[in-house]
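Problem: given the chain below (252 residues), write out its structure.
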Amino acid sequence: MRKYGLWLLVALFLALAACSKKQFKLTGNETDQEAMEKCLKLSEKKHFQEAVECLEIFKNRFPDSTYALDAELRIADTYFNKKDWLLAAESYNLYIRLHPNSDKLDYAYYRAGLAYERQMSKKIDRDQSSTDDAEQNFSSVYRRFPDSPYAKLAQAKYDEIRGRSARRNLYVGKFYFKNGEYRAAIPRFLTILQDYPGLGFEEESLYRLALSYHRLGDQEKAKGAAQLMQENYPNSKKTKKIVGKILGGGNG
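Solution.
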């Protein structure tokens, strides 16, 4: 009987807790503006799931409202504020696809880029599958909407992500190089030279590229890389090393 009484108390407590939890509701008597304000207040109070549900109901109840498009963006914003980066990115991209003529496309692209960026691992040796998506969304902002208030912010983010991508390629290339896997290292160094110019990684990449070709016995390509170093970094210590080793006929 005591055990039964205990379970009854627990069940009663849970029921009371559920009843005490604030639930949103739209009465149906609100104007579209009043309904939107209720949904936004839920998000402001960090009742994110309820806010999303509220906004979905709003879309169905007021499809012709001037706030209807805004509701779609607010859903994406709510997922973003909830730190549900994947759903946020997908929601912004859905808005972009459904409303290609919206005057808020720059905002949607920028926020999608931020959501993808948040998914990127900060560790250079971890999966970076969201990198390309982040780059594409940020580049869409400053290239398609150069007068947007988000254009400079997006370009700064784009440059930052490209720097991280270049560092990752250099990291992987140096790893292969260190372990004598020169054929695997070469594409990484070439990627930096071809796809990430001007980010400060060319000298190191050329140096290791020349050495990789040299150690594989491809002297023609090794000399080509060494000559590029001479042209672009004539006073570099790395250039002097590579010239002496390859163009000067050294071994190693």
